[in-house]
Amino acid sequence: MKKIRIIEAPKHIGETVTIGGWISNKRSSGKIAFLQLRDGSAYFQGVVVKSEVEESVFDLAKSLTQESSVWVTGIIQEDTRSKFGYEIHVKEIEIIGESKDYPITPKEHGTEFLMDHRHLWLRSSKQHAIMQIRNEVIRATYEFFNKEGFLKVDPPILTGNAAEDTTELFHTQYFEYDAFLSQSGQLYMEAAAMALGKVFSFGPTFRAEKSKTRRHLIEFWMIEPEMAFMNQEESLEIQEKYVAYLVQSVLNNCDMALEILERDKELLKKYTTLPYPRISYDEAVELLKENDFEIEWGEDFGSPQETFIANQYDQPVFILNYPKAIKPFYMKPHPDRDDVVLCADMIAPEGYGEIIGGSQREDDYEALQTQLEKHGLDIKDYDWYLDLRKYGSVPHSGFGLGLERTITWLSGTEHIREAIPFPRLLNRIYP
Amino acid sequence: MKKIRIIEAPKHIGETVTIGGWISNKRSSGKIAFLQLRDGSAYFQGVVVKSEVEESVFDLAKSLTQESSVWVTGIIQEDTRSKFGYEIHVKEIEIIGESKDYPITPKEHGTEFLMDHRHLWLRSSKQHAIMQIRNEVIRATYEFFNKEGFLKVDPPILTGNAAEDTTELFHTQYFEYDAFLSQSGQLYMEAAAMALGKVFSFGPTFRAEKSKTRRHLIEFWMIEPEMAFMNQEESLEIQEKYVAYLVQSVLNNCDMALEILERDKELLKKYTTLPYPRISYDEAVELLKENDFEIEWGEDFGSPQETFIANQYDQPVFILNYPKAIKPFYMKPHPDRDDVVLCADMIAPEGYGEIIGGSQREDDYEALQTQLEKHGLDIKDYDWYLDLRKYGSVPHSGFGLGLERTITWLSGTEHIREAIPFPRLLNRIYP
Ligand SMILES: [Mg+2]
Ligand SMILES: [Mg+2]
């Protein structure tokens, strides 16, 4: 018998096929049973009519428990009442693995309970939908940067020094050396850009930060493009083009997932309009002051302030040129003003916060050395990084996009912990 | 002036354009200077004719040092003598960053010296070519698994337990917990397959192994597909289709890189022919014995033995059904024989060794529990993993492909350390 996946049903109308799947739900009367089937590709209904099958098949259908696995054989038919549009008229059922007392029932469960059962929770339709959106964002990222002529470069995870001056690093013993888990591959990506021109990384990063908010993960994935011969203005154009591409790809390819998540597609469509609005840090501070926020020039924005700024616009917004004092050592100062740097954060709409941070990089050897010293960093640790300014330095810019924050936003999910298959949180390293 | 990249030259013949790049080499006479330019996208020649440019431009051209960065403006022309086929007739040169005493000269350097300067060594044409092949293998991997209906799933890097019973793990303190860096995401991928059907991971893995061979890295990238409702036979078909797809993609899209690496394309073409040959472990042992290797049934193959087996064939070869005793706890025993498991390694041709290891997974709760105990593993650590056999267990199979081993093979590189941008080796965590 032909084995197909549920997602392939539209190509097999009227054919008898076999599908391997799990029972996600079931209802039955004396004459008919409706099996809600899932196989990871999609969900659809299996209809078992008592008068059309052997008695043992109908009895088995009625006895199936939640998450039991089965081979189901039957005929694919159109089903105009369901969103998916197809169903299977079941002729035979073979049980593969029973499932007794499945812990996640259709009733409400607490988050800690669900997190303890994350390996099973992923089977739920909402989690499945978020993982489909995650997959699409990843797929579209590779497609976008490949089209734009970038090469994928993987910076090391284990490093001897840190990209930013912070103590929030995981330590490990690397044979006789001390090593840390990378919280950004940027410095390495700068070296790669000098060799390969336009590059992007896409890998896990780690922050041993004791914060417990709905926007923070300890282990998260970042996309970090770096571009030689590009200034900050050109980088901003790539950034907005990339984010709009992600939104459009999700709209094009995740229709069922967006339905399940009840995500407003009209809202998402607005995020595909370019260019994105821009506001300077200076203007943003003024705007906040006018609206009774307590902030002084020189301070960083908190979450409520970012949300207030974002709410002024229908698209993601760039905040440009932050004070030098609150940004990392490697950012290039504004040519006309020494107190701000050539940088921008992109703030997502609807209160989802910062999804991109980027800047033009300091490309002058002396200036970079001075900055390293001012930040109390050891020049020796940055020997190879300084080399990039010694041997044919060029203007270059880059940025980092947080994968899970972007997924949280696109899927309209409340908490970032649902945007990654197995979240690592302050008090969680299980499962 | 229109800014283009070298790779775009064919679309701009006869046009005046500006290119940002580095001087990789140079030769000049009294009347003409030839600048070898690179910008990360490709290499080509800039021709500066003394009688056609301002005197200052010609003087600057003659003074340019290796790896100095420049904006070059001129007219794109065909150049039938070069492999790339195009060159630029230079009108103006603007120097961006000087480069004095660039450490890597066209002469021979020792490997340790080059590794110490990896951030610069990446600019060399051979390293550039390997990185292009790496990019293509990554790109083709996403394309293949997306087409085949797999979802990308990222298993966690920080974990509380290990996939295989070994002490070769990096440890870190995860707040109040002990954590280890993942050396395989497989167990998590099995959970994901039960939720999403067909999944693949692609991320860094870590082995704190004190081996120093030309096939080992401490930090390396793995692709780990896992498929619900698939047996080992179906998995083998996916594996060979995937590897042939990688080879074909490199042949299609890395022509210049293969030229630079002097890689035999006719040889690579043979690796696109399917199916790949198969030999059982039993047969392989017999073959080795007949050829005077000292090996007994039950022992694992070493590198010379794998190479001997591979040399019997013109394609990668599968070695099937290894002894249970030398394979991990999660592999499913052969249905007819309890002493071997349903597994296979794929051995690359030309002595490049094992590039894939895969198996059908034990899907029976009791059998898995017994195996865990036999391997001296703590059942409690595998609680969630056992759940997968408790709630709708299904036949499932998966495999892992080592990215850098595959790149080493496809690029015909001697040592795996050149297959990754910033290698982590036994005595190296710099740069
Ligand atoms: Mg910020
Ligand atoms: Mg082996």
Automatic annotation (TrEMBL), chains A, B:
Enzyme Commission numbers on file = 6.1.1.22
Catalyses which reaction? tRNA(Asn) + L-asparagine + ATP = L-asparaginyl-tRNA(Asn) + AMP + diphosphate + H(+)
The keyword ATP-binding is annotated on this UniProt entry: yes
Where located?
Cytoplasm
The protein's GO terms of the molecular function aspect are:
asparagine-tRNA ligase activity
Checking PROSITE patterns in the record gives: AA_TRNA_LIGASE_II
Q: Which UniProt keywords apply?
A: Aminoacyl-tRNA synthetase, ATP-binding, Cytoplasm, Ligase, Nucleotide-binding, Protein biosynthesis
Protein origin, superkingdom? Bacteria
**Start and end residues of each Aminoacyl-transfer RNA synthetases class-II family profile domain:** 133-431
InterPro entries associated with the record: Aa-tRNA-synt_II, aa-tRNA-synth_II, aa-tRNA-synth_II/BPL/LPL, Asn-tRNA-ligase, Asp/Asn-tRNA-synth_IIb, NA-bd_OB-fold, NA-bd_OB_tRNA
Report the family membership.
Answer: Belongs to the class-II aminoacyl-tRNA synthetase family.
Please describe the quaternary structure of this protein. Homodimer.
Q: Which PANTHER family match?
A: ASPARAGINE--TRNA LIGASE, MITOCHONDRIAL-RELATED, ASPARTYL/LYSYL-TRNA SYNTHETASE
User: What's the protein here called?
Assistant: Asparagine--tRNA ligase
Q: Which organism is it from?
A: Marinilactibacillus psychrotolerans
Q: Which gene name does the record give?
A: asnS
